[in-house]
Design a protein that fits this description.
Radius of gyration: 24 Å
Distance between the termini: 53 Å
Number of strands: 18
Number of helices: 19
Strand order of the largest sheet: 15-12-14-13-17-18-16
Structural class: alpha+beta
Length: about 550
């Protein structure tokens, strides 16, 4: 394939850098870059989207999508090369050449991976950064849209609203989150009680597999299509998704109401547990428990904040609340009418009246150091338990907990319909959130410890056997896979928490489509051991031979 003279000069300079800087590292060299060039089209030269550490733009490109400052330090491991594809052939080349040269490939969409797994590794690695692939094509007549993995949720919502004020998509409320990572792990938002998760509304996808082939739903088959909707980024690189749009009213209603302990917060939270998953499916009420300054100087108190989206009028909302949740004491003055698109800004804590174009800004409102963990609530927390939780939170001060209710559509979908298993029988999901601004490892360890203490305190109240977790709230405390001889058992440690019994099927699909475990990370889906593959062979029958699979584990 031919290249332009400027592209050839650029490629030669990059090859020279590789040769000089990696000559003693036993890593990769100019052959890798020549491989990349040879695998791409002359009309889309890959040299124009490559960034080596000596490139003037390398640091700005790397840091542009680091959303957790814990992983933006001088000691954080950096990629040997950043590839920012503008064409699907660049993704194909990256996979083929990294595989050929035995290099780890990390794939980043929006950079919101809480543990930095999408862009950090202690092995030599190449970063495939998808931010240039952000095309969104909306077909309102058929209520469908094709969305590339590098788009943000804010961009998706904005482009849909450009075509229709009464269509939306059920996904997260943070507009800077990338589509690729969000959809890969499940994708929940404040319409999930009405329409389910993002993955429940994906009808097709384009994926580059481990052999560099571009597959759609038909060519990849239903097993792989099942796996990429909630099973994590262990099966290939998704280029784009075809999504089914959701109907929303032209005007929705939102509210944000807070109550402190002195304002009967414990009783209100206790009642919220009883009703949140049983309310009208048009109503989603998130509960946030945190610690704030009290009325008395130097004292702190607990605060419960209830944030709601209602797909209807304020009059109907008040009727629902007075009938089902009068304990909150919602008033008409608390209810705010706006478009669905404006409600995204409200939920992201923008000031009311902020232009909706703010959804197109890829920069988060704030950047901090952070730690997240997650849990699932299947039984009510008694009042005495809530009182103890408030006491523990006031002691720790910093971590907050966000409770997101289930029920509605979530309870209607089978746990095996997608890799995401947390459906019926769950009252809500809990997120533990700790943010801090102080620099340094000492401060980080202190706040990490605070988060873990609250998580440990919650043990008696949350799901058990397994204690379940939500994959997009990535938590390396649950286990890390070293991808050695114990890879399957290491993967099972965290995999069962994220996927429950669906983990077994994911392992089987992974072994079939990526037997060499190329797409791997600290918490990826492992492959089956060679001994098991030969025992249960042929691979095509592993799906049928669940007895063999279970026998291996036992």
């Amino acid at each position: 394939m031919g290249t332009s003279s400027s592209s050839m000069i650029s490629l030669i300079s990059i090859i020279l850098w590789f040769s000089l800087s990696w000559a003693t590292s036993d890593s990769i060299h100019g052959d890798f870059l020549q491989c990349l060039s040879g695998q791409t089209q002359s009309s889309h030269p890959i040299s124009e989207v490559l960034y080596t550490p000596d490139n003037f733009s390398y640091s700005s490109v790397l840091e542009a999508y680091i959303r957790n400052l814990r992983f933006n330090t001088s000691t954080t491991p950096k990629p040997r090369l950043i590839i920012t594809p503008t064409h699907e052939s660049h993704i194909q080349a990256a996979i083929i050449c990294c595989k050929k040269h035995r290099l780890q490939l990390k794939v980043r969409s929006g950079g919101h991976d809480y543990e930095g797994v999408s862009y950090v590794s202690h092995l030599s690695f190449i970063l495939l950064d998808m931010f240039n692939l952000r095309s969104i094509t909306v077909d309102i007549e058929n209520e469908r849209a094709w969305v590339q993995a590098g788009a943000t949720l804010g961009e998706v919502y904005y482009r849909i609203a450009e075509k229709s004020k009464t269509h939306a998509f059920p996904a997260g409320v943070c507009p800077t989150v990338g589509v690729g990572g969000h959809f890969t792990g499940g994708g929940y938002g404040n319409m999930m009680r009405k329409y389910g998760l993002s993955i429940d509304n994906i009808v097709d996808a384009e994926l580059v597999d481990v052999n560099g082939l571009i597959l759609n739903r038909k060519s990849m088959g239903e097993d792989l299509f099942w796996a990429i909707r909630g099973g994590g980024p262990s099966f290939g690189v998704v280029i784009s998704y075809k999504i089914k749009l959701a109907k929303v009213p032209a005007t929705v209603t939102v509210f944000r109401v807070s109550r402190t302990l002195e304002e009967n917060a414990t009783d209100i939270v206790y009642q919220w547990q009883h009703v949140a998953d049983k309310l009208d499916e048009d109503l989603f009420i998130r509960l946030i428990m945190d610690v704030v300054d009290g009325d008395r100087s130097g004292e702190q108190t607990g605060r419960a904040t209830f944030i709601a989206l209602f797909l209807g009028t304020s009059e109907r909302l008040l009727s629902v609340m007075n009938r089902s949740f009068p304990e909150l004491g919602l008033q008409s003055s608390d209810c705010i009418k706006m478009s669905w698109l404006e409600s995204v800004l409200f939920w992201t804590n923008f000031e009311i009246g902020t232009p909706v174009e703010a959804l197109l800004d890829r920069k988060p409102q704030v950047l901090v150091h952070l730690k997240r963990k997650s849990d699932y609530l299947k039984e009510l927390i008694p009042k005495a338990g809530l009182e103890g939780i408030w006491k523990k939170m006031i002691e720790l001060k910093r971590p907050l907990m966000a409770f997101n209710p289930y029920g509605g559509k979530m309870a209607e979908i089978s746990p095996s319909a997608t890799p995401f298993p947390h459906r019926g029988g769950h009252l809500c999901k809990i997120q533990y959130a700790t943010n801090w601004e102080e620099e340094g490892s000492e401060a980080a360890e202190m706040y990490l410890n605070f988060t873990r203490q609250l998580y440990n305190y919650m043990t008696p109240f949350v799901s058990k056997s397994p204690r379940a977790s939500y994959l997009p709230y990535r938590d390396l405390d649950l286990g890390i896979n070293l991808h050695g001889k114990n890879s399957l058992s290491e993967g099972r440690t965290y995999g069962i928490k994220y996927f429950k019994s669906n983990f077994n099927k994911l392992v089987q699909i992974k072994t079939k489509v990526d037997p060499g475990n190329f797409f791997r990370s600290e918490q990826s889906i492992p492959t089956l051991p060679y001994q098991m593959v030969t025992k249960c062979a042929p691979l095509s029958n592993i799906f049928l031979n669940s007895h063999c699979f279970n026998e291996w584990y036992m």
